[in-house]
Amino acid sequence: MKKELIQLQHISKSYDGHMILDDLNLTIHENEFVTLLGPSGCGKTTTLRIIGGFERPDSGRVIFDGEDITELAPNRRQVNTVFQKYALFTHMDIAENIAFGLKIKNKSQAYIKDKIKYALKLVNLEGYEHRMPDTLSGGQQQRIAIARAIVNEPKVLLLDEPLGALDLKLRQEMQYELIRMKNELGITFIYVTHDQEEALTMSDHIVVMNKGYIQQEGTPEDIYNEPENAFVADFIGDSNIITATMVRDELVNILGTNFACVDKGFGENKPVDVVIRPEDVKLVERGKGTLPGVVSHIIFKGVHYEMEVQAGGFEWLVHSTRMNEVGSEVDIRVDPFNIQVMNRPASEDEEAIGVAE
Amino acid sequence: MQKKKSNNVFEKIYMGIIFVFMYAPILTLIVLSFNSSKSRAKWGGFTFNWYIRLFSDSEVLNALANTLIIALIATIVATIIGTVTTVALVGLNRKTRAVIMGVTNIPMINADIVTGISLMLLFRVLHFNTGFFTVLIAHITFNIPYVMLSVMPRMKTISPSVYEAALDLGARPMYAFRKTVLPDLAPAVVSGALMAFTMSIDDFIITYFTKGSGFDTLSTKIYNEVKRGIQPEIYALSAIIFIVVLGLLFASNRMKNVKIKPREMDERKAKGRKVRLIAATAVAMAAIVFLGMLFGGVFSKKSNQVYVYNAGEYIDPEVIEMFEEEYGIEVIYDEFESNEIMYAKVAADNAAYDVLCPSDYMIAKLIQNDMLYEIDLDEFPNAQEYTGPQYFESAQAFDPGNKYAVPYFWGTVGILYNKTMVDEPVTSWDVLWDEKYSGEILMQDSIRDAFMVALARNGFSINSTDPKEIEIATQDLIDQSPLVQAYVVDQVRDKMIGNEAILGVIYSGEAIFTKRENPNLEYVIPDEGSNVWIDAWVITKDARNKENAKLWIDFMCRPDIALMNFEYITYSTPNIAAQEMIEDEDIRTSEVAFPPAETLKRCDTYVYLGEEGDRLYSDAWKKVKSAN
Ligand SMILES: Nc1ncnc2c1ncn2[C@@H]1O[C@H](COP(=O)(O)OP(=O)(O)OP(=O)(O)O)[C@@H](O)[C@H]1O
Ligand SMILES: [Mg+2]
Fold first, then answer.
1. How is chain B split into domains, by residue range?
2. Does the domain formed by A4-225 have CATH 3.10.180.10?
3. Is there a contact between B164 and A105 if contact means CB atoms under 8 Å apart?
């Protein structure tokens, strides 16, 4: 097990009487690429700002490397931030921007010069020393913001949606760039995004948040394959989320038809939700599957076809490399280990609190 | 297309008219400041004389120095406080910010007069001695919102994340602020400071109420001078102020528009250096002046003083110096614009001045309201010996028993006419109703003087409070109004000198001066009688320097002093000895300056009409004015 670097203990925060974070607990290990993932307004930036020291939690403690830093000023934390809106110093050139933190630490001229060079190389912007920030494109500015942060060799780098403003291609390039930097520099990244694909691509560890509560934590595979509730399942990729009844262990009734599954311990005849990924829904000849249905819609997506199938009164989303024409009569089959069974919360608020309990 | 073009022409004409309206008066003023003739009506050739005179007038220069020092210090302090407050405000949440902004903006939205009076009251409650420091505090107070108003919008555009980024990189809060927020804020701060400076130089009302006695800035000084006719030096001064203020506003606008572009980096740095240089110079100047004042002013201050409150231009300045030298008493000398303003000030703070020089009816009002100190004429040997007893006699009309007042100057109201333009000798007020002179008649723009003419013409008392008589007089004035060229105060003099009118109602003192400039002018007190007015010295009830005040009054009655004042002011002196010492025989025997006793018998002083009477007159006056 890796060393625990940051611990958020029972953090609560509210603005103007609105609870934004409620008793949040999170542990971040050294040298990890941790991603906070969640819809807009769920409290990701707030969490990051508490770690950076720009907000003080109403209650709870922030522990860094065994020390309580809850009250420590931001300029005294061994943490650097890449802000959601770049926040470059517009009246300084690129070199001065990057040198800002180093000058404060009284590094020698030669050292600073070296570092600027090294950092610009790292972000692929060599020779940009004397440009002004507003003559750079959004992606270039973002990379300068990253360079400005990493020259200080922080133990932890906080990145708040650093790729939000970039186009798809540049975003993908930068994703690899960031992973490379993380490996090269050996520092801990805490990364914020609401883009689930980005999170799955880059992270060692994903924290899914909703309405200020952590819904689920784990590796990208855990999160994708075994969402613990409907919110996570829905948020991470497309999926079929269906209300169902757990008949008994390893047997679930979906839309009136019994399916074999691998889940146990829900009790008998209990209401549940099931999640089935669209690529796990197999379409077979009529009579060869579990549930009969009719293909109602089809779109070609490049790698696969996306189809909608009416079956048992539910519109199933199906991904497949083989196409079935609209109107064709098929059967649906799902392998037992591809059916993910989850407890059904009684209300929406309970849904948000979900796993936090 | 065609339509658009004509629209453009219309726009241009419209703009042109607006500009003419705005700048024509100022242009006139600038032109007049180079006019060698004292009259506004005629051009006497180009001269720099008024500018030279202005800069050799130590009182005006003093006021100018006060204005600049106050403006400078107030600007610096207000800029610092205003900027810091704004920055702090942005950190607060929206609701609190709105409330605080609202509160701080009150002095700006508030009428100046309310701000001025409330500050005056506050200073009084706190027992602050009004003067330099109270004016300074007042200016700082009203300047802060201007700075905030300039800085706030800029501050709002600055994203806090830039400041946070600096903190994040290890900067301490002050350093982060200086490096990230301040450079972005600087143009707005400078423009706010310039605005504050302009406002400070410009302010009159608040200064007037907080300055107390013996301290003047340019605006209050100018205001004082206006009373007995504006001197051309003031045009010169106003022209200079206008140019300076225009320059500052221009600079302030330039500052606001500075956008920082990368290629302008060096230029911008140079500009930053310039701003810093100006700021440093300003601070150094302020420091020097301030120290100078401390050593020159505070430490040499004599404890032996007398506070004098007189009408504007109503003494030979040399007389003040002579008094100071002979008695070793420092004279704190202030001037008022009208009896009413004087009354308001004395009513608010009876001890502000020791000795006043009001007019007859106002003395009656002061006595009635128990605001004066009872004197014993035996303590005024010069007054007893040299002031003509007939004047004390006349003074009984408003000061029965001569218990409060010592006459200073007196005069009559009459008709000034151009003898080459009238057909028959002018002997009656009726001439002012003669249609022959339609458009050539000037009336005094003052309630009592206008009604005096109409009442006297009808044979009524000039102090009548009989509604029927007032009604007749009112109707007369309404009937007369189509013939009147203008209701004016001190323009009678200029217009008559410039042959712009044939007949004008005027004070005798002015008449002597105008006759000198235009020998065709004649002054007459009509047969129906007129007003004789007396201005006299009185001591306030709570005066702190009563003995000095008595010395001052008796000094004014010394024949040589009375003569100096007479020659300076040209109103009639009640000092018999001084009258005999007048060198110019024409004036010594002038019937304008010293009308024969039988003429004077026809004249009355104004008496205080009481509140009821005041209202009767002012209602009637409104009718006359709205009939015009
Ligand atoms: N300074 C503030 N004052 C009041 N409310 C705030 C403040 N900062 C954040 N909030 C509120 O807290 C909630 C969480 O905000 P936060 O910025 O953490 O969201 P986020 O997860 O980063 O969203 P996004 O993906 O849109 O950036 C939002 O509802 C937001 O309106
Ligand atoms: Mg955010």
1. 57-229, 410-533+612-625
2. no
3. no
